[in-house]
Amino acid sequence: MSDRVWEMSIEQRESLIKAAFEAKQQTYSPYSKFPVGAALMAADGRIFKGANIENASYGGTICAERTAIVKAVSEGTRSFVALAVVTDVPSTISPCGMCRQVIREFCAQDMPILLIPGDYPKPPGHDSEGKPGIIAGGIKETSIGELLPDSFGPEHLDLPRTGGGK
Amino acid sequence: MSDRVWEMSIEQRESLIKAAFEAKQQTYSPYSKFPVGAALMAADGRIFKGANIENASYGGTICAERTAIVKAVSEGTRSFVALAVVTDVPSTISPCGMCRQVIREFCAQDMPILLIPGDYPKPPGHDSEGKPGIIAGGIKETSIGELLPDSFGPEHLDLPRTGGGK
Amino acid sequence: MSDRVWEMSIEQRESLIKAAFEAKQQTYSPYSKFPVGAALMAADGRIFKGANIENASYGGTICAERTAIVKAVSEGTRSFVALAVVTDVPSTISPCGMCRQVIREFCAQDMPILLIPGDYPKPPGHDSEGKPGIIAGGIKETSIGELLPDSFGPEHLDLPRTGGGK
Amino acid sequence: MSDRVWEMSIEQRESLIKAAFEAKQQTYSPYSKFPVGAALMAADGRIFKGANIENASYGGTICAERTAIVKAVSEGTRSFVALAVVTDVPSTISPCGMCRQVIREFCAQDMPILLIPGDYPKPPGHDSEGKPGIIAGGIKETSIGELLPDSFGPEHLDLPRTGGGK
Ligand SMILES: [Zn+2]
Ligand SMILES: [Zn+2]
Ligand SMILES: [Zn+2]
Ligand SMILES: [Zn+2]
Question: Where does Zn(2+) bind (chains A, B, C, D) (predicted)?
Answer without folding.
Answer: 63, 96, 99
